[in-house]
Amino acid sequence: MIGKIVGIIGIVLLLALGVFLYQVVMHPAASGIPSSWFHGVASSSAFNFSLGSSHVAQGPSGLPAATGTYLASPSSTGAPAIDPSQIPAGYTLAELSPYFHQIRLGSVSAGTSYYYGQITLYAYLNSGEKVDITGWQIKTNNSGEYIPQAINLYDPSGLTPASDIVVKSGDTVSLYSSSAPFNLRLNACVGYLAHVANFKPGLPESCPYIDRSALQNFTGACQNYIGSLSGCASPDLNNVPVPRTDYACYDYLQNHFNYKSCFTDHVGDANFLSNQVWVWTGSNVVDQYHDTVKLLDRQGRLVDLYSY
Fold this sequence. Notes:
There is one protein chain. This protein is of the alpha+beta class. It folds into three domains: about 1-45, no CATH class; about 60-205 and about 270-305, Sandwich (Immunoglobulin-like); about 210-265, no CATH class. Helices cover about 20% and strands about 15% of the residues. It contains five helices and eleven strands. The strands form three sheets. A five-stranded mixed sheet has the order 1-2-7-9-8, with no helix packed on it. The longest helix has 25 residues, at about 1-25. The N and C termini lie far apart (about 80 Å).
């Protein structure tokens, strides 16, 4: 009988001691014992828990599983945090670019012997942020290519040097497997270049409208002819239904329907430069049927992944 009582008392004492130690470690100030006596205890393996937070399950490679918890972004660019569920299989957070999913592979199509291939990139960046993507790599299962430079603002002199492609949010970069005289960012007047250089695909022909008020002093025949011109058409001066003696009309036709004149009149417009950059690589790097296309930054880190 006495032995049982002693045993019960011992159990009660052990429980009380355990509660006391827990309170001391968790709330040292309330216990009256200096917290410095227990420095490092809460972080030891014997007390492996985190106050005020829930447990996060471990996924592949030790990364938190996709439970709604977000990982801190690996960049200092203000990039949004990365949802663990978005990390591609076989990759770790450290292998992702600071611009992961901020530059996306929007579409991929393989070229054929009759038609060019196309890879299109879309920029989803923070407001005011710009990124230089020249030197980034597009890598496929069996090939790859690097993003080259392009002319940002094509000058009528034709002497504008190419520079790195710098994109902002809303920009698109289209890479074609065909060839062209040069790569460039589109602008409001490039349609005139389509008539003097061979681009495949052809440059969009949507040039600014001619100011009708500038035509009011021309003859009726001249105004009618100018009004019949569409897009970025350059008139055939040898086949104009206007009398040759209408010198003012011919002078206007010769000097106002070309890239140089359009550039001079509209380069200062707020929307002169387009959000589209067209690049011609001259080679097709994607498989016609199935492929995995990776976009890598200059350090070889994954920016985006596209499989078909």
